[in-house]
Amino acid sequence: MRTEAVLDGLDPDQRTAVTAPAGPVCILAGAGTGKTRAITHRIAYRTLSGEISPRHVLAVTFTARAAAEMRSRLTELGAGGVQARTFHAAALRQVRYFAPRLLEGRQMPELMESKVRVVGLAAAKVGVRADRTAARDLAGEIEWAKSSLVEPGEYVVAAAKALREPPYEPARVAEVFAAYEQLKRRQGVIDFEDMLRAAVWGIEEHPDVADQIRAQYRHFVVDEYQDVNPLQQRLLDAWLGERDDVTVVGDASQTIYSFTGATSAYLIDFPRQRRGAVVVRLVRDYRSTPQVVGLANAVIQQARGTEAKLRLELVGQRPPGPEPELKIFPDEPGEAAAVARRCRELIAAGTPASEIAVLFRTNAQSESYEEALAEAEVPYVVRGAERFFERIEVRRAMVALRAAVRSIPGETPLVEAVVEGLAATGWNRHQPSPGGAAREQWEALAALVTLAEEYAASPEILPIGEAGRLQREITLAAFNDELARRAEQQHAPTVAGVTLASLHSAKGLEWDAVFLVGLADGTLPTTYAKTAEQLEEERRLLYVGVTRARQVLWLSYGQSRAPGGRTRRPCRFLPQLSRGGQPAGGSDVRAAEHSRKPDRRRPQVSSCRICGVTLLAGVDRKVGRCATCPSDIDEELHERLLVWRATTAAALKVPAYVVLTDATVVAVAERRPTTPAQLLAIAGIGARKLGQYGEAVFALVAGANPEDLDSKNFGN
């Protein structure tokens, strides 16, 4: 293939990235903008032009799937021979090759596939009782520490600085960490982080190894650069040495793995760290319709913090499609049933089931959708996790609930009986477990309690023949039968179907139709997100979910978890939802905004136009932003508005606040409305004040002097 052919079909920004000169290149690529196309064509362009040799290129990805896709595309472009590997695969290959030299003839230690067994032994050695779930969480903490270049003796301070929530006291985790390192050495095994460290050590401490590796690999490409951790960055620096021929590609707005040690800091600082770096922005979105792109931009444009510095505003390139559907339901079961019906309609209309996804914040949310899809006879697959009733903690809980029938009095209310029965497994309703895996298991059992609440709140009338009808029993034994029925129904053979996945596991994927469900504060963002940085990562999770959709996008939440439960607020990151109040019954929010009369008994929900947080204070709602968010007020306009208000109030012989309150004046000076709709959107401005003062306000916004306004604008 000729180099000119490699450039065919590229947009101007992609072409700039492909043809950039040797040296540091940073490609900021928004979702759906063709980043893989850009980096593979860059490699092919450089190899086919004779600038570099394919065997001297190392392209690094984060998944084996991405590496395989990159190799396939490079082969099609005539650039076969390029090494495309994950960080771990590249490091393992090098460590194995140089092991005889690095280990002085000793055999390379065995690589562990999982830390959990050894971590469990280490915990027992230092007197920490840890079941398999706790061992998984301890392994996660150790993995974070090692990826962050933190040693056992440094863990307590480092964990405090990083605001970690370990499963045990930090000092105890540090003890387990130290014992784990000792046990590994004694058993002659290493973990994946050791392998990366060994590759770094081999290069940094052995000049001959460094020379050989650097002679082999001279040009580097790193995909998903926002996800690198300190250990991976150190390995990349070791590979590079003093050279700077490296191309990185990433999107700070898709940074969603900071809990594992990943950080976008290296992407953000790349131009500063690499002098003369070429920075290219890819913003043309070829994946999603302009309607989906518009919503994605609306979600991320309110982002704050470090990652927001590299925020990209996408430009949709596809033909127009349907508007995103924004829906609110009375409860989660109603939401799940509606999603299942809509999936069935899409499939009947010709959308393949495999091109539909239901995405949620936590794996524990999957049960409602597994049940609803099964009831609607819609095939589905669960990605990145076991089906709900196949999870070991759920199976154990069902055994405990069956045993509880014999020990709990039959007259005990169902929900109380379920909570008491689950207590036998160590579950505490009011105390979520610390640690990721343990918390996920806690949420799965909490989902069983929600099922019990739902079951108790809606006793079906069952047919019993011509003699009459019978209301089903609301007992623990009957509920156990219901759980068994659901489990049996969901154990059907797995076939190609609608994808059920968490937002984290959906990263890098896309579908024709996407349902983002459970968008309620407390779920997204999760209640465990307490700091500003954690909340921003939750916002980016929503952004990732929105940008998975090519054509159809549905966003929804249930006002309560179970029928009759506590009412929740919509996700604060969705300004479209927060402006429209809280319509019930699954109505379309956009329609409800125009048709539903305001409920004077319920405060209208509004969100800060800058950070997106839900506004509670009256002054904040009027101004439209948090008191702590920066004001973008037009000071000159504000002064002119105050002069006009004083003159108008004097002419009408009323106090100034009767004309417009101070907060409303500030809001006008910040938002600078130019149309009646924009002015009416400001709290404190209704139809009457629009008629009285609208003409004067628009004139002032346009630059008029207050003294030049005719007295007719002083109101009636």
From TrEMBL:
Record domain UvrD-like helicase C-terminal: where: 290-551
Pfam family membership, one: UvrD-helicase
GO molecular function, one term: ATP hydrolysis activity
Record-level GO BP terms: recombinational repair
Enzyme Commission numbers on file: 5.6.2.4
Reactions catalysed: Couples ATP hydrolysis with the unwinding of duplex DNA by translocating in the 3'-5' direction; ATP + H2O = ADP + phosphate + H(+)
GO cellular component, one term: DNA helicase complex
Domain spans labelled UvrD-like helicase ATP-binding: 8-289
Region (Disordered), start-end ranges: 565-601
Keyword GTP-binding: no
Annotated Gene3D superfamilies: 1.10.10.160, HRDC domain, P-loop containing nucleotide triphosphate hydrolases, PCRA, domain 4
UniProt entry keywords in alphabetical sequence: ATP-binding, Helicase, Hydrolase, Isomerase, Nucleotide-binding
InterPro entries: DExx_box_DNA_helicase_dom_sf (IPR013986), DNA_helicase_UvrD-like_C (IPR014017), DNA_helicase_UvrD/REP (IPR000212), HRDC-like_sf (IPR010997), HRDC_dom (IPR002121), HRDC_dom_sf (IPR044876), P-loop_NTPase (IPR027417), UvrD-like_ATP-bd (IPR014016)
Domain HRDC: 631-711
Binding, ATP: 29-36
Similarity annotation: Belongs to the helicase family. UvrD subfamily.
Record protein name field: DNA 3'-5' helicase
Organism: Actinoplanes utahensis
